[in-house]
Design brief:
Elements (H helix, E strand, L loop, with lengths): L10 E10 L2 E11 L2 E6 L6 H8 L7 E6 L2 E2 L3 H9 L1 E4 L11 H11 L4 H14 L15 H13 L5 E5 L7 H14 L4 E6 L2 H7 L2 E6 L2 E7 H4 L6 H12 L6
Parallel strand pairs: 3-8, 3-9, 6-7, 7-8
Antiparallel strand pairs: 1-2, 1-4, 4-5, 9-10
Length: 252
């Protein structure tokens, strides 16, 4: 088990690269994640989901290292422990036909090795958190797109993780649901690391503390959200101007 200096509780990636069929998806990505809300901001195809799959332990990088609490995740047991302490909402919520919401969450709890003695209370807690208590016995294939995203968030929290990865979490939510989701993210981030992947500046403005701009597989900006904002207008417009400047677009 390798130890690196620095972050005692956070997660860091150093020099991460990944290619598919000779096409680079990530190139030398390095960043540090700490408690609170970090946002990975980029256009579609910028490499956000690839980085999330690597952070979640669902895929291995071609080069570079991931470390948690100063420990490099360099083997089967270190990755297994990391996955037990990580929650991940992929871009598409897994849909297992025939299962109810409650059964699906119990299945994810089993995958995450949640002790059987607390599975019931964890299901109760995450359903309450995403306001789906009355849907616990509904079949997954009867839910709307917005409800499926909320179930996806619930499964990401079922193991009470210290690191939560939410890939395009507000997709499919209407404005009222999105506002509620933003309040929810701020609440859960008070005691854990939450990372949002998004292309929506509204999400960054509403919940972001730190932001990493990724473009063509490279980190182009890393810093506090307000450091990205430039120009005039409300916060979202200033963030848009800063984002476009970072990726080399004029906004026209």
């Amino acid at each position: 088990m390798a130890i690196v200096n620095g972050l005692a509780t956070g997660v860091s990636v150093s020099g991460i690269s990944k290619s598919y069929g000779g096409t680079a998806a990530l190139v030398g990505v390095s960043l540090v994640l700490e408690e609170g809300v970090s946002v990975l901001l980029g256009r579609n195809g910028a490499g956000k989901s690839t980085l999330f799959r690597i952070l979640a332990g669902a895929e291995r990088a071609d080069a570079g290292v991931v470390a948690r609490g100063g420990v490099i995740l360099d083997g089967g047991e270190t990755w297994r422990e990391h996955r037990r302490r990580c929650g991940w909402l992929p871009q598409t919520t897994p849909l297992i036909r025939g299962l109810t919401v409650e059964e699906f969450l119990a299945y994810v709890a089993w995958l995450k090795e949640v002790p059987r003695s607390v599975v019931g209370e964890r299901i109760d807690a995450v359903l309450a958190a995403v306001d789906l208590v009355d849907r616990r016995r509904s079949r997954m294939d009867t839910l709307s797109g917005g409800m499926l995203r909320r179930v996806g968030v619930a499964q990401a929290l079922i193991n009470d993780p210290g690191l939560v990865l939410l890939d395009e979490p507000s997709a499919g939510l209407d404005p009222v649901q999105r506002a509620a989701f933003h309040r929810f993210v701020r609440r859960i981030a008070s005691e854990r690391m939450v990372v949002l992947s998004t292309h929506l500046l509204e999400d960054v403005a509403a919940v972001g503390e730190r932001v990493f701009v990724i473009d063509e597989g490279r980190i182009r900006f890393a810093g506090d959200v307000d450091e990205l904002a430039v120009g005039e207008g409300d916060r979202t417009e200033r963030l848009r101007a800063g984002f476009l400047s970072v990726i080399g677009e004029d906004g026209a």
